[in-house]
Amino acid sequence: MNAFPFSDYIVVGIFGLAVGTTLAGALIATLSTRIIRGVCGLMISCVGLAGLYYFLNSPFLALMEILIYVGAVCVTIVFGVMLSEPDEPPEIGKRHHAILWGGGAMLVCAAVFATAAHLGVRGNWPVSPVRVNDGSVKAIGTSLLTTYSMAFELISLVLLVAIVGALVVARFGRTKE
Amino acid sequence: MSFLTLEPIRLLLYLVGVCAFVGANAAYLVLAERKGAGRIQRRPGPNEAGYAGLLQPVADGIKLLAKQIMVPPGTDALLFRAAPLMVMAPSLMCLAVIPFGANLVARDLNIGLLLVFSFGSINVMALMLGGWASRNKFAIISSARVVSQNVAYEIPMLLVVITMLMVTGTMNLNEIIHQQAGWFWNWNVFKVWVNPLMPVTFVIFFICMLAETNRAPFDMAEAESELVAGAFTEYGGMGFGVFFMAEYANIVVGCCLATILFLGGWQSPFGALSGVLGPLWFLLKMYALIFTVIWIRWTFPRTQFYSLLNLSWKILIPLSLFTLVLTGVMIKII
Fold this sequence. Notes:
The structure holds 2 protein chains of 2 kinds. Chain A is mostly helical. Helices cover 75% and strands 0% of the residues of chain A. Chain A has 2 domains: 1-86, Four Helix Bundle (Hemerythrin (Met), subunit A) (Up-down Bundle); 135-177. Chain B has one domain (71-333). Chain B has helices at 7-40, 56-66, 77-94, 112-120, 122-134, 137-168, 173-178, 198-212, 224-227, 237-262, 278-299, 305-333. In chain B, helix 1 (7-40) packs across helix 10 (237-262) and helix 3 (77-94) packs parallel to helix 10. Classes of the chains: A mainly alpha, B mainly alpha. Chain A binds chain B through residues 1, 3-4, 7, 10, 34, 36-37, 40, 43, 59-60, 63-64, 66-67, 70-72, 74-75, 78-79, 82-83, 87, 136-137, and chain B through 6-9, 76, 78-79, 82, 109-111, 114-115, 117-119, 121-122, 124-125, 128-129, 132, 135, 140, 143-144, 147, 151, 171.
């Protein structure tokens, strides 16, 4: 592998591509006024994130990111938008002191980001950042059903509540007629 | 020669190869489709350009390439242009993990099966965005149909895949093929001692594959007699062409997957001659499946949308759940 000329640069370039895709997608998602474009930005961002996961040697997580966030979450959002939203976003009048609000939000975001980054790099983590297993499907399944079975069961409970809630809402809408 | 064995060069060669394969397939499957349609409807099909119409794809390609890509006013121009690319790119990506022969695979990924499904799921999003960006009522109806159809059929498809995962125990496509070595009764579709319903599982997979690639009798997204051309209504020239190339690429990927999961991939039916001739066996099985797809399209009329959803939710999902449970029980007993 290392015999290939400029292999370091290629690797750095691919990393830069993944980071750039993630950031560009996030910017599109936040800056666009049309909600469909925002969802597209989210999708691009998720694909970039999947690239980063792949870069960090966990292809399973990368593929799951695409399968769930692009294939399911984004599709659901767009579907919801198509069913509900009028095509054109209504014109929003300019808020008073927009720059102040924006600046304040920016400050808060910067503080949160700086704290998270500091914690991530310098924080005293109880579990050291080493690979606990080979990241294969079998290892993930085993740890899901043994060490993290509580979290796994809680997630299924959340899903159950969501399904029941959806049923209740649908019922309500039907009998109201 | 050593230059060719370097990883980046090898990947680049595979990229070119996959693009060429998809392009050639898209071009000649259209011809095969039209020829097949002609045979089934008792007419010759295209037979003017070249010998027996073999140059027809070239003529079609030149015609499509020469047309201007119109972006109608009022559309979301950016998404309108991006949608064909977003349909095409994931299907190219899927072909990276398909093993055409024992050593003929671009990336022998451990979770190749998952990769095909995760990138396959982008297809829905792209078709839907294409329909939405067209700002055409037919296109938007078609996008809504694409989503509900694909969501409905993704469930039985994934259930079938989980069944196969339980049988094979791996997501590595090449490994799955290796397990089906020997005579043809070792292919997963005939492994009735693992699960008596294995042929039914194959049929469910095939039906779901037809629905996922929006092929007739499930081509509700296109439905030219009611929705003009569905999500592609506003597209012309190569924008339209790329959508069709992607559709055929998806059919190729789906048939490849069916071949790998159920029909033994590049294994020969008699236990010998699968080394060098592997790709040949693979292509033979794959094209037989593709022929079946074409055959079904011109034999069955388009279903209604409700019966399409009923088929999935009331028959295929319970049936695939049942095979899943049965396989689990059988594995536990044996």
